[in-house]
Amino acid sequence: MDVSKRLIIVGFSGFGKEVYWLARRLGITVVGFLDDNPAVQGVTYRDSPVLGTVDSWVNYPDCLYVIAVGSPRIRKKIYENIAASGMPQFATLIDPAAVVNSEFVSIGEGSIICAGTILTVDIVVGAHVIINLNCTIGHDAVIRDFVTVAPLVAVSGNVKLSECCEVGTGASIRQGVTLGQGSMLGMGGVLTKNVAENTVFFGNPAKAFKTIAG
């Protein structure tokens, strides 16, 4: 991406601050944050203030944007709300300490790849995906739009994470497994079989715990 462009981070949260740190490591100037929480309006983190609510993005048409919100469903909703009033240019942020070779890996706009993560070969990562710290993504994996992968997750080869999936910290996924749209694997889970859409799995081996609204 063009590091001369200025960035606005959507979401003033702990992860938003981590994305600020990531952007600064890339040499990108962070203009500020946008957040709908009234309590954080006007608050400044380092040198970057909360500039307004999310819909005020239209006041900064020359900036790049990234949505730094962990929940896949909320992140998708924010994107849809932004898209309803136009379409800014979204940044794709890959930490310099991540191992990613664009010859072997495709990454969509608005995605965030954090420090220590390794993506090997023939991997497709969709748009507005978050892959957090120290994850490993194996060969031929497919990660669809709005997926969140928490820190220290091991994704084996030929795994498919469908749109809006969420994988908790320290989880492991066996080769060839598919997680259906909107599903979730809980923290520390060891997944050895496919997960139906909008289903939460926990444990070792992970088992179905409950279904959640689509």
Automatic annotation (TrEMBL):
It holds the Pfam family PglD_N. InterPro entries: AcTrfase_PglD-like, PglD_N, Trans_hexapeptide_repeat, Trimer_LpxA-like_sf. It comes from the Bacteria. The active site is at 139 (proton acceptor). Keywords: Transferase. PANTHER family: ACETYLTRANSFERASE, UDP-N-ACETYLBACILLOSAMINE N-ACETYLTRANSFERASE. The record marks 140 as: Increases basicity of active site His. Belongs to the transferase hexapeptide repeat family. The keyword Transmembrane does not apply. It comes from Pseudomonas cremoris. This is Acetyltransferase. Substrate binds at residue 70. Residues 6-81 form the PglD N-terminal domain. GO terms for molecular function: transferase activity.
